[in-house]
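Appendix B. Raw example, untouched.
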Amino acid sequence: MSGTDIAVEIDVSMTRKWLVVIGVVLVSTLASSAMSPAQGPRLNQVMRQKLEHAQKILAAVVTSDWVELETQSRELERLTNDPAWMVLKQPEYARHSTAFVKAIQTLHRAAAQRDLEATPKAYIDVTLQCVECHRYLARSRIAP
């Protein structure tokens, strides 16, 4: 095995470890950020579906399952078109939502191109968009 092969193997291993860490953070953040009752059960259902798709995306990124990655990223974007998604009318929430959709679209493009470099980075961006929005909601006391 050449030095380049070892470096690539270490890089892939480190990327997978970071994806797992970020996945755990995502799951923890979403699980602990229950929506307030005023937002309704439909939004809770959409957020649960978002979490399920995000978990499947993480698995697909780590295993380079491109078909599943494309499918799950499409489904995740589809959720953002659900009327319950935009139940909150604050401009800041709309900005977070737009950033999330753009991150999903970037992930989907990277998956469609089978880009081993861009795909994990795009997944990380999707995760960060989730975390940032949930932090905004918590700071604004929109969600407990």
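End of appendix B.
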